[in-house]
Specification:
Helices cover 45% and strands 15% of the residues. By secondary structure, it is α/β, with parallel strands linked by helices. It folds into two domains: 3-126, Response regulator (Rossmann fold, 3-Layer(aba) Sandwich), CATH 3.40.50.2300; 143-310, Alpha-Beta Plaits (2-Layer Sandwich), CATH 3.30.70. The strands form two sheets. Strands 2-1-3-4-5 form a five-stranded parallel beta sheet, sandwiched between helices. The chain has a four-stranded antiparallel beta sheet with strand order 7-8-6-9, sandwiched between helices.
Length: 319
């Protein structure tokens, strides 16, 4: 794995280099500024697999650098680990919204750094496997004649939507929240109820358009509450937001559906594609007993899927 680290502190870069080599990651390049890092990225002589970026750098801070990196086609999905001593939620929110996939504390520990780098390595392996699978897939889907490069269960990359990040990045985001930040958050899931019908009848571009419209609508509706979200595959989105009560859930679902009714895309046959959604009741992460974040995400998805199966959008109890 080829790693590029950007930090304005030479000692930090030396320490990172030494620790990474101990962990088996010897292909390590350093940059003393954001501008120097961009020069290496734009140069194109080396395709880096993972970026380590210090949040606080002069001239161009790490969050600005991260957002610019995401505009470079070759680095749109590259794992980016932000390095910082800052734990305020506003910084964490900005970093992940800019495109960070992970967030590491600068009081470095070999074991902790290793967990972040190995996680990035797993993401890279999964991305390459998915790319290879799409390249070798063939044959029409469901007899309709549409050939999708992505399976319905795939976490399709959706671009250009504010607050939408990768599923694994959303898990890392939740892990970084303080006790108070975690306690002040809730996890909800939105499910496109007729996603199987859409998948069978729509082209890949139309299906992506549907998912993008749903993500846009979620952003519009949850903006005042503050939110981060990720697409989990199978027409489901996971949302991390400020506290929402059960009565608000009904109103939020109604508002989401209204916005989607207006944004209805048109198929290749010039017929409208109706989008029907369900919003699950919120789950409150426990601050007294630890629980794996991705397990909570799974619970939120199963909750809304259960509601869809029962034909009752709000039959579950608060978690």
């Amino acid at each position: 794995m080829k790693i590029l680290a950007a930090d304005d502190d030479e000692f930090t870069l030396e320490l990172l280099t030494m620790m990474s080599e101990r962990l088996g990651f010897s292909d390590f390049t350093t940059a003393l500024s954001g501008k120097m890092a961009l020069k290496l990225l734009y140069n194109g002589n080396v395709q880096f697999d993972c970026l380590l970026i210090d949040v606080k750098m002069p001239d161009m801070d790490g969050i600005e650098l991260c957002s610019i990196v995401r505009t470079i086609p070759a680095y749109r999905n590259t794992p980016i680990i932000m390095l910082t001593t800052v734990k305020e939620r506003s910084f964490i929110d900005r970093a992940f919204k800019a495109g960070a996939t992970d967030y590491a504390n600068k009081s470095f520990d070999v074991v902790e750094l290793g967990s972040h780098l190995h996680m990035a390595e797993e993401v890279i392996v999964a991305q390459r496997a998915a790319k290879s699978a799409r390249a070798t897939s063939n044959g029409p889907r469901l007899g309709i004649g549409h050939q999708h490069p992505f399976e319905l269960c795939d976490m399709v990359p959706i671009e250009g939507v504010d607050g939408l990040i990768a599923y694994s990045a959303l898990g890392n985001y939740m892990t970084q929240l303080s006790h108070s930040g975690l306690g002040g958050s809730q996890i909800m899931a939105v499910k496109v109820k007729n996603i199987e019908v859409i998948d069978a009848c729509a082209s890949s571009e139309e299906r992506l358009c549907v998912l993008t419209n749903v993500a846009d609508a979620i952003g519009d509706v949850f903006r005042t509450n503050g939110y981060m979200m990720a697409y989990a595959g199978n027409g489901a989105f996971v949302i991390v937001t400020r506290k929402v009560n059960r009565a608000q859930t009904n109103d939020l679902q109604d508002e989401l559906q209204k916005r989607l009714d207006v944004k209805t895309p048109v198929s290749d046959q010039l017929s409208p594609i109706d989008i029907e959604i369900s919003l699950g009741n919120p789950i409150r992460p426990s601050t007294s007993r630890p629980e794996r974040i991705l397990k909570i995400f799974d619970r939120a998805i199963k909750r809304v899927e259960s509601q869809v199966e029962k034909g009752n959008d709000h039959s579950s109890q608060l978690g």
